[in-house]
Amino acid sequence: MDGGGGAGGTALGGPCQLSSRPRHRVFARGTAPPKGGSHSPLLATGALYALNRDWLFALEAEQTFYPSQSVEAWRSGAAVFNSVALTDPVLQTSRYSLQQSQTQTQVMVHRRLQGHWFVIGEPMLRSQSFRRFAFAAGPDHALNPSPDQSVEETTAEAVLNLGLALKSQRVAGAPTHYSLRVSAGLPVWRRVENTSQPTVSFNSVKGYDLGIEARYSWAVLDDVHLGGSGKWGRLRRSYQQTTNGSGAAVELPSSKLDGWSAGVEVLWKL
Q1: d(CA 122, CA 31)
Q2: Cα–chain center distance at 42
Q3: Of residues 72 and 138, more confidently modeled
Q4: 63-81 tens-digit pLDDT
Q5: I need a surface site. Which of 115, 147, 239, 264 has the fewest CB within 10 A?
């Protein structure tokens, strides 16, 4: 990127995989959280500006759309569940989908350390929603869920990230462009709501984010580059417990979300 100017970019057509252990309300103690996965296209856009030689400012946004579905199996960690001796640990199955698009917006500040190395800091806003449906009882019918049941859960959160970045900066007039970024973050605000408990919301911010992102591109015109990018991320959130309107305990187990994306990107000098 040229000093005082701006560079924009769009990543298109890259497959995005979210291999996740989604958040959910526990049916009963002794059940193991299910694992679910979702694949979808990912659209990433952004812009990078030079405030001066040592300070850079960036805006980035990501959005998934048309997510795939997967089947989850809910398993018991004990040989007996609900007074039923189990011959199979599967208590029930359900289908899972990131029902709505996952969106993520980042406002990033870069401070040059030396050469092409920068320290980065950013607030990040993230929201996502998933849906479970098509519930079916396991072989022993220790649980008998309604097949018409549908449960939706929505999460919104703000995360503060810090990290290091290696950037070549310039696009216009440069034969290649590269960037490598490593970051870690802590949530500072979070709200989780589930339709199975409409009067309850969870707001614990215990957990962390980790992320690695890399890109490399070649000039196809004097001020336009074509290349590829890849990203890996890990989110961990801790167990929470609260009470509903009737005073009954409601739990939100610890959650794990691992995701990766890879695709083609176009960069240009504005």
Answers
A1: 37
A2: 12
A3: 138
A4: 887 778 888 888 887 888 8
A5: 115
Which residues have C-beta within 8 Å of that of residue 248, sequence separation ≥ 6? none
Instruction: Give the residue from 42, 44, 55 showing the smallest Cα distance to 106.
Output: 44
Tally of residues, the chain: 270
Residue pair 129/155 in contact (Cβ under 8 Å)? The answer is yes
Query: How far is the CA of 208 from the CAs of 82, 127, 128, 159, 176, in angstroms?
Result: 35, 16, 17, 9, 34
pLDDT at 34: 66
DSSP H/E element including 169? none
pTM over 0.85: no
* 27: number of Cβ within 10 Å: 17
The token pair at 36 is 């679910």
